């Protein structure tokens, strides 16, 4: 296919955690592979575990993986005795019906999906005959997010036994060119140095991690139960750093020590009444900082308004789009959906802070993400484009990204011109480019771009569903469900039915909401899926400097970073 490419910025994190928890006296994991492919910030990860039952009778063999909350599972398969058992993505209501029917027959749960800080867990099991084998294969997808000027691809493997054929393969392909790549993490140690191979060539990079069975037992955190640790690939792409101005905004009182002396700040406490520490912004000198810290240490909870709808209404009225609202929820007993909705209503973001020993680091990390806005009131304009995803953004932060997807009108790349309009230091700025580069990249990349568009669209529809009510809410929910089913994404609106051999319970995987409790849905034996592949063509575009090229035909979709 051809693709028009235009660049603004990007940002990313992929977190891969995989584990199989066997009794090594009963079964043998003879092959364990994690294969991550990152193409233009869209990561597809395939985890494959091959297990043999070496006992003289049938055994239940378990497969368990943990994936990032932002990822969508898109495929799960089991290969048993020459047969392929595919997972089927269904609407959550249909899956719930199967669950209810199974419970009424007294069947027990076989799959659990749970939420930790950043992970969701997928677990299933299957009975394997004596001296037979099973292959588990899970695929999930995620649009990478750039944080603080870098991407991190974190892979955590814990097979619970040394594996003869243990491999981690990472391939990164970035059209903008890869600026740097590093390998870190608990598995990147001196003892394992010769197990890691890293290659970087302009736009591509490869990382291979092939530890021997002995190395899997001797590394830090490893032992007789084998590998237990993470491998972190850190990288960034080439970019133009000359655009935009930097301004500082004080986000959290917990990081007062990070303020520069030429910063100015203020503190306000509020409930049913408002109290100002100072009536005006003050300079972040030593005297004012010490006074502010004393004030912060003496802040106490005094009650206030408790009606959630009135709180949201009052906050929205008083902020009146003058600045974004950042909501922090501490611990698990907070109503996080309320905080998330209120922050979205006021052009901000919500973040859960976990009550662990590193809570201060979590706060500082969040502050670092939002402390340096480069642009505000950002509008992405694409003349010659239609069917666009979100194009208006309240903030563009240093080290972050803006992504827009849509369709090129009449497939005519000649009429397609991107433009960015925003506010920088109280002045209106415009970035535009009238040229575009179009190049043929083939059907594989065509399908890849199509899935990026679908992933991004579903994510934004789910945010709208949280904000809307009544018919509007139902409409966006319906649209998000249809796309989730079409692209086989396991989202909060869908579930995956995991089919098994005849006579075994069929598990149901669901994606819980943020802060949701652990649940397990069993169901009776399901149906084999019928594959559905979208045929639409897409172009990828990035704002930047372009030269025009002519081609015989143009595809009609694009993604803009």
From TrEMBL:
<dbReference type="InterPro" id="IPR013694">
    <property type="entry name" value="VIT"/>
</dbReference>
<dbReference type="Pfam" id="PF08487">
    <property type="entry name" value="VIT"/>
</dbReference>
<dbReference type="InterPro" id="IPR050934">
    <property type="entry name" value="ITIH"/>
</dbReference>
<feature type="region of interest" description="Disordered">
    <location>
        <begin position="506"/>
        <end position="550"/>
    </location>
</feature>
<protein>
    <recommendedName>
        <fullName>VIT domain-containing protein</fullName>
    </recommendedName>
</protein>
<feature type="signal peptide">
    <location>
        <begin position="1"/>
        <end position="20"/>
    </location>
</feature>
<feature type="domain" description="VIT">
    <location>
        <begin position="13"/>
        <end position="142"/>
    </location>
</feature>
<keyword id="KW-0732">Signal</keyword>
<dbReference type="InterPro" id="IPR036465">
    <property type="entry name" value="vWFA_dom_sf"/>
</dbReference>
<feature type="compositionally biased region" description="Basic residues">
    <location>
        <begin position="529"/>
        <end position="540"/>
    </location>
</feature>
């Amino acid at each position: 296919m051809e693709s028009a490419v235009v660049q603004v910025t990007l940002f990313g994190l992929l977190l891969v955690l995989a584990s199989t928890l066997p009794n090594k006296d009963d079964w043998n994991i003879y092959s364990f592979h994690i294969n991550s492919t990152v193409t233009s910030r869209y990561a597809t990860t395939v985890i494959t575990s091959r297990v043999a039952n070496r006992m003289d009778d049938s055994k239940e063999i378990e497969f368990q993986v943990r994936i990032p909350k932002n990822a969508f599972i898109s495929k799960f398969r089991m290969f048993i005795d020459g047969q392929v058992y595919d997972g089927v993505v269904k609407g959550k209501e249909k899956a719930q019906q199967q669950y209810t029917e199974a419970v009424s027959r007294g069947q027990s749960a076989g799959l659990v999906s749970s939420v930790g800080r950043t992970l969701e867990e997928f677990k299933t099991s299957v009975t394997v005959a004596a001296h037979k084998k099973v292959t588990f294969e899970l695929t999930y997808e995620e649009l990478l997010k750039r944080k603080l000027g870098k991407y991190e691809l974190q892979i955590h493997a814990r097979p619970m036994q040394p594996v003869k054929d243990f491999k981690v393969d990472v391939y990164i392909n970035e059209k903008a060119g890869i600026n740097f790549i590093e390998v870190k993490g608990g598995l990147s140690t001196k003892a394992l140095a010769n197990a890691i191979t890293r290659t970087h060539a302009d736009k591509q990079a490869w990382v291979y991690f092939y530890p021997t069975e002995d190395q899997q037992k001797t590394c830090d955190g490893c032992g007789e139960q084998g590998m237990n640790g993470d491998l972190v690939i850190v990288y960034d792409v080439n970019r133009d750093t000359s655009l935009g101005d930097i301004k500082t905004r004080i986000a959290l009182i917990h990081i007062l020590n990070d303020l520069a002396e030429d910063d100015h700040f203020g503190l306000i406490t509020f409930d049913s009444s408002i109290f100002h520490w100072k009536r005006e912004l003050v300079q972040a000198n030593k005297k004012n900082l010490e006074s502010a810290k004393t004030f912060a240490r003496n802040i106490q909870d005094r009650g206030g308004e408790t009606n959630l709808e009135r709180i949201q209404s009052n906050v929205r009225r008083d902020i009146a789009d003058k600045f974004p609202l950042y909501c922090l929820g501490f611990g698990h007993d907070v109503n996080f959906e309320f905080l998330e909705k209120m922050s979205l209503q006021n052009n901000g973001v919500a973040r859960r802070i976990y009550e662990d020993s590193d809570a201060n680091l979590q706060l500082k990390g969040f502050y670092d993400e939002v402390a340096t806005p480069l642009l505000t009131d950002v509008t992405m304009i694409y003349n010659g484009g239609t069917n666009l995803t979100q194009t208006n953004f309240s903030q563009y932060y240093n080290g972050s990204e803006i992504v827009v997807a849509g369709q090129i009108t009449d497939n005519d790349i000649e009429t397609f011109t991107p433009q960015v309009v925003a506010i920088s230091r109280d002045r209106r700025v415009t970035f535009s480019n009238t040229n575009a580069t179009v190049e043929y990249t083939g059907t594989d990349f065509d399908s890849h771009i199509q899935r990026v568009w679908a992933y991004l669209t579903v994510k934004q529809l789910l945010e709208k569903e949280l904000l809307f009510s009544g018919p509007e809410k139902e409409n966006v929910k319906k649209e998000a469900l249809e796309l989730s089913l079409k692209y086989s994404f396991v989202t909060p609106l869908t579930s995956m039915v995991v089919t098994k051999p005849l006579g075994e319970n069929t598990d149901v995987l669901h994606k819980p909401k943020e802060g949701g409790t652990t649940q397990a849905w069993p169901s009776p034996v399901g149906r084999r899926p019928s594959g559905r592949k979208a045929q639409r063509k897409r172009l990828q575009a990035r704002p930047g400097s372009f030269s025009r090229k002519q081609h015989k035909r143009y595809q009609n979709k694009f993604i803009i970073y």
